[in-house]
Design a protein that fits this description.
8-stranded antiparallel β-sheet; alpha+beta; 29 strands; Immunoglobulin-like; 19 helices; Alkaline Phosphatase, subunit A; 639 residues; 3 domains; 8-stranded mixed β-sheet; globular
Amino acid sequence: MERICGPERPGGQGLDAQQEESGNRAIVALLTDPQVREQTDLVITCRDQAYEVWARRGMIRFQRVLAEGRYHYRIVEQIGVNPIADQRHTLLATCAEELQAAGTGGHRTADANQAFIEPEQASYPHAYERIAQLFDSPNAPDLVINPKPYAFGLQLGQHGALDVVQSRAPLAFAGPGVRPGLYESAPRHVDIAPTICRALGFPAIDGANETGRTAAERGVAPDVYLKRQDGNVLDEVLDPGQRPARVYVVIFDGLSNSELQHLLDTDDHAITNLRRILDRSARFRYGSTVNFPSITWPSHSTLLTGAWCGHHDIVNPSYYERATRRALTPQGQGLQTEGYLGSGVETLYEAFHRVLGPQAFTANIHEPQGRGADHAALERRIVGPRDRLKALTAEFNETISPRYLADGHEGVHREAALDARGMAQAMVLFDNPAQAPPLLLVHEFSVTDGAGHDYGPHGAGLRTAVAQADKWLGQVLDLLAAKDLLDSTLFVFTADHGMAAQNAGLAANPARHLERIGMKTITGEPMVWLRDLAVEVEPAPDGRTARITVLDNDLDPAGEHPPVGGAEILVHAHPETLLARLQTGPEGVAGLATPADVRPAAIVLSVRHPDFNPRHLRLDGSALVIDPRRQLYEREVAR
């Protein structure tokens, strides 16, 4: 028996019946308006228990179906080409392949930082799952605007999109309990946390799997390791005959897997110390597919919880909380952001404490998700003597490459300075007479991300940053060796996302187009929340009057649609015949005298308010909306 599963926790995400007009207008504008049509790859939404992906080359609607205890995905409508049909995780795995794809798409170049890849040459790994999960959160948007792989912002490198280059991060495990080798399977970042738990011998619990149901609710024995576990254990890389004493997760933020492969293939000295881990690791040739959107705060939280962002609720660096009418920006806030993480998930730090007890020391070095970590500088929980931390920070600051400032990239220098503070923390955490070494340390190196943005995803500038992080990593490894901790530690090496070359000359930002053409939106790239009206029309049975109620389409904290006072309603029986001009009162209601000899379907209402998108509908309640199928593909499809 199967069941269609739409959004897990409905809360206004996607498009409902009151948003057909603005939603369809937005889809068409993003794919046809000359300012953005060459920049937009996909417009994504959910509607009527299905997920929609629109592109100029074609569209699909697909459903998520629960069958035999797992999710499956079924296309229920397609016009033209399925724009996300190619979901190969093996595509564009090297710099040479990126260059070849750019040439095939008409952007021939010998410079990997100019390898602009068209959507037709890209793939979208795990796309159905990654799209559907996003809309499980009530924080999810109404629309996601996925730019072309090379068409976002002013920097030479970017990430955030669904395509394989931006969505692929390196992944390797090394140490006791690992079977070394080069693996070609298709892991996802939700698989990392449960794999760590299994490697340490943690017991399975009655938690929820990707369907949101606990083992008891599914009628099976405990089978997950975290409160909400969307991923699976990567059993192929584990040797159950050995068990590590501790875990050290190393994150080179924003380092693309193709760049890492280039450094390995050329035996580049920039990763001399990283090779101390990778040369004895279980490494995935094609990396791991990260969260969608492939952006820092959501992706890091996925890495640390084993749950997609639609389940941990940090859906974007910035997002709109409909009930409170607040725009939240955890990534902009930067500090003390663990409170944004949803209560339905569990971090690795929390799992360590649950299994090993509160005395199990866990640490986070500048990793954006630190809930539950005993040491977490971004949450202002710092373990270790402050004077020593300051002295070590000063020492590491002296070793920052002068290149960044000389090149005018102050942002990269700031990232390196942040990493210098992180290095001081690492040295103290593993060499503190007052505190045992951490059983779990997650260590974020930010300089690689800053350089990937400013210098581009490949090349000498980026490699200077990689070498910087590598040198500092080597000092931690040397300390672990001196403390006789190296051989008993499980290392996990990864990143939070990939990095793709951008045509910065475009100054592209298609998600902002809707507000620039006058639509009422809350925008946090690549997402858009539409500010729409819910309009209810009630003609009287005798045909003489009608009542029109205008509400905010977003629910308030009490679960109600607040009334919208001051909305203007124009009533026409014909474009040139104005029957009435009305305004709603404080309760959002207006009354109308209707001609008894005119059918309700022939009377048109135009409802406007300066804070919302306009609505056009007939007195019988039917909406006047454009059909994107007809506008985009010259086809009209009955639904």
